[in-house]
Amino acid sequence: MNTKLILSFLKDVAENNNRPWFQEHRSEYLAAKDDFEQGVAKAIGTIAEFDPSIAHISVHDASYRFYRDTRFSPDKSPYKRHLGAYIAAHGKKALHGGYYLHIEPGNCLLACGSYCLPTQILTACRNEIISNIDEWLSCVQSTGFLRWFGRPGDHGDHGFGLAHLKTCPAGFPRDFEHIEYLRMKDYCCWVNVPDSFFQGDSWLPRMADVFASAKPMLDFTNAVIDDYE
Q1: pLDDT at position 72, please?
Q2: Contacts for 183 with CB less than 8 Å, ≥ 6 apart
Q3: CA–CA separation, 6 vs 63, rounded Å?
Q4: Does the structure show a pLDDT above 90 at 229?
Q5: Cα 10 from chain centre
Q6: Of 118, 65, 112, the residue nearest 89 (C-alpha)
Q7: Which value, in Å, is the radius of gyration of the alpha carbons in the chain?
Q8: Cα gap 87→132, rounded to integer Å
Q9: Predicted model pTM
Q10: Is 123 exposed, middle or buried (0-12, 13-18, 19+ CB in 10 A)?
Q11: Among 219, 220, 190, 225, which Cα is nearest to 117's?
C-alpha cells in the first residue's frame, strides 16, 4: 500500500471534515480508497494461507464505508478519520470473530477476535474456558500471543480485552485461578503499529505473524459463537 498517500488524505479530511471540501477532493479519496482496497485484497490472500475459512471473502465484504452514520451521534462530521477492513468468514456483521486492519494517522493497528458479544454467548465462552482451561491457556499464553498482545489488563501499545469487569461475573467461582479471563467482556486482541507499517508489501508477512498468533484463540471462541449463529 501507499500509506503516505492514504495518511495524507486522512489528515486532510480530519481537518476539513465537510461535504464541500470532500467533493472538491473526491479524486484524492478515490485514489486512497483504491490503494487501501488493493492492500485488503492482498491481506485476504495472505490470511487465507493459514485460515482458509476467509478465502471466499471479497474486498467489498471486508471494507467499511467511509461515510459516517451521524443519526445518533453528537458528532455530525460526515466522514470517518480512518480506513478499516474486517476480514471474517461470516461477514462484517456476524458475531463470528475475524481479523481487522485499521489505518489512521497516529493510531494504525491490527486486531483480531470478537467484541460486543451478547450476554448468553459471553457466558458460554466463560464456561468453555473453565471447562477447557489447559487448551485456553495454550492459546493465550503461547509465546507468539504474549509477544503481540500480552495478558488481560496490560496497557500500552497492545492489549487483550477491550473492557473488563472489576469483579468476578455473577455465577462463576471467585476463586478460579485464572479469573482474569472470566472478567473479560470481549475476546478481542490488538497491537498498534507505526504509521509506516503498511507501506509497500513487506507488511504482509508481519501481519500474518500477528494474526496467526491469535488464530488459536479465535478458533476457540468461534467454536462457541458458531453454536449461536
Answers
A1: 84
A2: 152, 164, 165, 166, 167, 168, 169
A3: 15
A4: no
A5: 19
A6: 112
A7: 19
A8: 27
A9: 0.95
A10: middle
A11: 225
